[in-house]
Amino acid sequence: MSEVPRVGPAGAGDSRPSVLFVCVKNGGKSQMAAALMRSLAGAAVEVHSAGTRPGDAVNALSAEVVAEVGASMDGEVPTAIDPDLFRRVDRVVVLGSEAVVAAVPEMRGSIETWETDEPSSRGIEGVERMRLIRGDIQARCEGLLEALQAR
């Protein structure tokens, strides 16, 4: 999980909005969302990703298709949710219905779930499947970026 350090506690010295993308394994969709948001927002948004039950590696096909649009998952590894980070980010975005997270006391932000496109339910597999998922997540990241910048 890549992290851009904050200066001091949340809200002190860093007015950038922050987001944590979550899926089960933190190897595919949440990593894609984080890479795409970093690519779209640059340093304007503090971006993190994590999993509820992290896997062993980032999905190579996910990394390949985000690279096609200029984003990068290089150096990323599946990571568990950090409870302190979870409490302090402005937005927690859960990708898909398999990962389940609940609000916790002293949580600063909100939780939303993105029911992302699943092309395999239509018989679409491989790189074509991943490109469709990437397109869905990228469009959602663009909308989220607008919302975060308007806060």
Question: What would you say this structure looks like, in words?
Answer:
The chain has 151 residues and is of the alpha/beta class. Helices cover 34% and strands 15% of the residues. It is built from 4 helices and 4 strands. Strand 1 (18-23), helix 1 (29-41) and strand 2 (46-51) form a beta-alpha-beta unit. The longest helix has 25 residues, at 126-150. The radius of gyration is 15 Å and the shape is globular. Residues 1-12 have low confidence and may be disordered.
Oligomer designation: single chain
Give me the secondary-structure category: alpha/beta
Helix content: 25-40%
Count of alpha/pi helices:
4
* Low-confidence residue ranges: 1-12
Quick synopsis:
The protein is built from four helices and four strands; from the N terminus they run E-H-E-H-H-E-E-H. It is an alpha/beta fold and 151 residues long. It has a four-stranded parallel beta sheet with strand order 2-1-3-4.
Helix/strand layout:
Layout lengths: L17 E6 L5 H13 L4 E6 L8 H8 L15 H6 L2 E5 L14 E5 L11 H25 L1
Parallel strand pairs: 1-2, 1-3, 3-4
